[in-house]
Amino acid sequence: MTKGWQLTLALILLGLFTLFYQGLWGDPRHIPTVLIGTDAPNFEGPDVETGQTISLAQFKGKVILLNFWASWCYECKVEHESILQLHQLFKDNPDFVMLGVNYQDKLSDAQQYLQQYGTTFPHVRDIKGQLAIDYGVYGVPETFVIDQQGKIRHKWVGPITGMVYTNLTQKVIAPLLNSQPTTTTS
Amino acid sequence: MRIRFTLCLAVLLAAPFPLFAAVQDETDIDIQVREIAKTLRCTVCQTENIWESGAPLAQQMRGVIRERLALGHSTEEIRAYFLSRYGDYILMEPPKHGVNWLIWVAPFLLLLIGGFFLYKEVTHWVRETPTPPSQPLPPLDDQARKRIERELES
Asked: Which of A72, A79, A119, A77 lies closest to A100, judged by CA?
């Protein structure tokens, strides 16, 4: 085998090894979303605590944070304090709305969870899972930010803690509330 | 003995009928749900389609397919809906465009490259293997010739 062919073979093997290595260390939960910049699907559902119907359309023109969660989800418990903190930070802004979406859960479990860990914002029940599928959700927690024009501007898969929290509040929500649109994704 | 044999035979012959009945009970929508669900990946299972998966999300996705079929949506419209929510990842078979072509072509390309290198190596070995010089066989002596003739005659 000539040196040229040996070099070609070595390069092919190196390329394959790089792909394998990248796949080995990549986050299997990270699936690129196709929803950024698209219209946020409208939905209607009962409030977990009161049973009253909540619709996304009623918050038109506001910056909306949607947080998908479930009582059986460990990472949802991990992020719960930060989520409450985030609401505390923006709740006085009339252009900001925060909604929880309870996903694949029993109503009693969801209600008990909210009583135990506390909540300061409404939560919609996704009874049939249609809402989650409309938002391309494949696990919880997942968080979406919708801008004043009703477009999905940001999606994050996993708990909102640490740097993720800082990035979400300072680089996504605050600029949107100050009408400085950004397009970011997880 | 004969009664037992007849009973066994009756059970064996009757066994396929419930299965046949189950297949007959499958409506057109059931068949369409199955065909569509088989082409969509269960996003929480990674290697299963949503027809085979028992995950709650897969069950809900099957429900969405059924609802949309009942509303009169076509197979392509339903697949397009899931594609618009989850991207190419939702499809069990990656669509043949852009960088996806690599997935389809790479195995054959690697096979060709491997075959080429194998061919080159084998021809190289054949060329380098020394062929033994052909030498004329020594003539048979009388004793050996007689022995062969004896053995042929016996």
From this structure: A119
Span A89-106, average pLDDT? 95
Contact B61 A1 (CB under 8 A): no
Chain B residues whose CB is inside 8 A of the A28 CB are 46
CA A37 to chain centroid, in Å, comes to 14
Q: Give the Cα separation of A125 and A105 in Å (integer).
A: 8
- The amino acid that residue A27 corresponds to is D
Domain ranges for chain A, please list them. Answer: 34-177
Residue A103: band (very low, low, confident or very high) from pLDDT cuts 50, 70, 90: very high
CATH number of A34-177: 3.40.30.10
In A, which residues are within 8 Å of B47 by CB distance? Answer: none
Q: ipTM, 2 decimals?
A: 0.82
What pLDDT is recorded for position B23? 53
Average pLDDT over chain B, rounded to whole? 83
